[in-house]
Design goal:
The chain is α/β, with parallel strands linked by helices and 429 residues long. The protein is built from 12 helices and 18 strands. Bound molecules: guanosine-5'-diphosphate, 6-O-phosphoryl inosine monophosphate and magnesium ion. 6-O-phosphoryl inosine monophosphate (IMO) binds next to helix 5.
């Protein structure tokens, strides 16, 4: 396998983890490149459901390196909790110690980040983003404001102390005067960092340069993205986005390699679209069809348990995602969810309700999205079970017609079709 990036191509939860887990069998190093514990990734293996948030979805294999990259932000308690839960599920502690590595340049979500996230969401009221309240935005804000704490800082008490002398007075002033939240003394902050040091000690990889040097020359790398292109801080439905770069271009930066280390970028799409949290969604279905998709697709968030909003596949978004996400191919998941649908719709363009103008190009000012309605093409459903199909040729004709058109309007070839959560329920085209 070539070095491949797995990118969420819609609003997250496309089934990236299933595809990452699948492709990880042919990779040596799996690097998660952005996001934090806002992500909720599900892998089903041997009839067991594993939930990952920070741990790369390749962890179920022996003999691979799973690397939490520099572009990720880590809430130490969440990281510890996730590992403990997976140990309780039967993955051994020894396996984690051997396979899991954390980049020393990854930023840490401190308690104040989570508290500020909660405050901001509450104070925005009806204008809230609908974040996961995991402190993601405030952690990245501090990273870019150059007042963040990185994993490596925990391992040098002297320089950590110096850093905190700069960060804390500033932070405390903000926490107190702007947010009316609790402040942190130097002793409290040092004690938190000492606790975090213990959490990361078995995993921090100070030899990351050697590891990547070797990986680039002799190994196959799989880059795992979180969230999705439409949640990208630059290209998503801003401001209803996350605070990192899920796009393919984010992989090089977040995984400490350049673009030339990447050979293929697979965009993962659902056969429809879902979204959690606030923000516009042109093909959203607020009727019983939306409810049917939600029910059959079991569309509830892994991280927050919130119901996911559902709608028809939007090729305006898909085409945009192929462009800005840098996608070279498509993995289409959850086709099986349509097995009992008599009719399926595909949005191929947006119509401006005010001017009548039709566009196939994605309008980036999301405050105008209420002015657009989807232009649909209708397809006859196949009304049969696809969950055991092994080869493309054995798919029902109606499904092939839908897929062919979806591929055509999206602008990238479909290479993988997923017809169930299991590894086996996959068709390579
Ligand atoms: P991720 O965040 O992109 O990794 O996706 P999530 O794990 O949040 O959500 C995807 C959900 O769909 C999970 O529960 C998967 O087990 C499930 N899933 C993945 N692929 C398929 C598929 O082809 N069909 C069905 N029915 N479920 C799938
Ligand atoms: P995976 O990796 C779906 C959404 C939140 C909110 C917005 C900002 O499982 O696909 P944040 O907490 O990141 O500041 O929230 O982004 N969001 C996700 N939606 N899947 C995810 O991850 C998400 N991670 C964040 O719901 O709308
Ligand atoms: Mg998810």
């Amino acid at each position: 396998m070539k070095n491949t990036v797995v990118v969420g191509a819609q609003f997250g939860d496309e089934g990236k983890a299933k595809i990452t887990d699948l492709l990880a069998s042919n990779a040596d190093v799996i690097i998660r490149y952005q996001g934090g514990s806002n992500a909720g990734h599900t892998v089903v293996y041997n009839d067991k459901k594993y939930k990952f948030h920070l741990v790369p979805s390749g962890i179920l294999y022996e003999g691979k390196t799973c690397f939490v990259g520099a572009g990720v932000v880590i809430k130490p308690d969440d990281f510890q909790k996730e590992i403990n839960e997976l140990i309780a599920e039967g993955i051994s502690e020894e396996h984690f110690k051997k396979a899991l590595k954390v980049h020393p340049l990854a930023h840490i979500t401190m308690p104040w980040h989570t508290e500020v996230d909660g405050y901001s969401e509450n104070s925005l009221g009806k204008n809230k983003i609908g974040t996961t309240k995991k402190g993601i935005g405030p952690t990245y804000t501090d990273k870019y404001a150059r007042v963040g704490i990185r994993v490596e800082d925990l391992f040098n008490e002297e320089t950590l102390s110096e850093k905190l002398d700069v960060i804390l007075p500033l932070k405390n002033k903000m926490l107190d005067k702007v947010y009316n939240l609790n402040t942190y003394s130097k002793d409290e902050a040092m004690a938190l960092c000492a606790k975090y040091r213990k959490i990361f000690a078995p995993y921090v990889c100070f030899e990351w340069q050697q590891l990547l040097d070797d990986a680039k020359r002799n190994k196959t790398i799989l880059f795992e993205g979180a969230q999705g292109v439409l949640l990208d801080i630059d290209y998503g439905t801003y401001p209803f986005v996350t605070s990192s770069n899920p796009v393919g271009g984010g992989a090089g930066v977040g995984a400490s390699v350049g673009p030339l280390a990447i050979n293929e970028v697979i965009g993962v799409f659902k056969a429809y679209i879902t979204r959690v949290g606030e923000g516009p969604f042109v093909t959203e279905l607020l009727d019983e069809t939306g409810e049917k998709i939600q029910k059959i697709g079991a569309e509830f968030g892994v991280t927050t348990g919130r119901p996911r909003r559902c709608g028809w596949f939007d090729a305006v978004i898909a085409k945009y995602s192929v462009l800005v996400g840098g996608l070279s191919s498509i993995a289409l998941t959850k086709l099986d969810v349509f097995d009992t649908f008599e009719t399926i719709k595909l949005c191929t363009a947006y119509k401006n309700k005010k001017t009548g103008e039709i566009t196939e190009y994605y309008p980036t000012n999301v405050y105008t999205h209420k002015d657009y309605e989807p232009v649909y093409e209708e397809f006859k459903g196949w009304m049969s079970d696809t969950t055991k199909v092994k080869h493309f040729d054995d798919l029902p004709n109606e499904a092939k017609i839908y897929l062919k058109r979806l591929e055509e309007v999206s602008g990238a070839p479909i290479k993988i079709i997923s017809i169930g959560p299991d590894r086996e329920q996959t068709i390579f085209v």
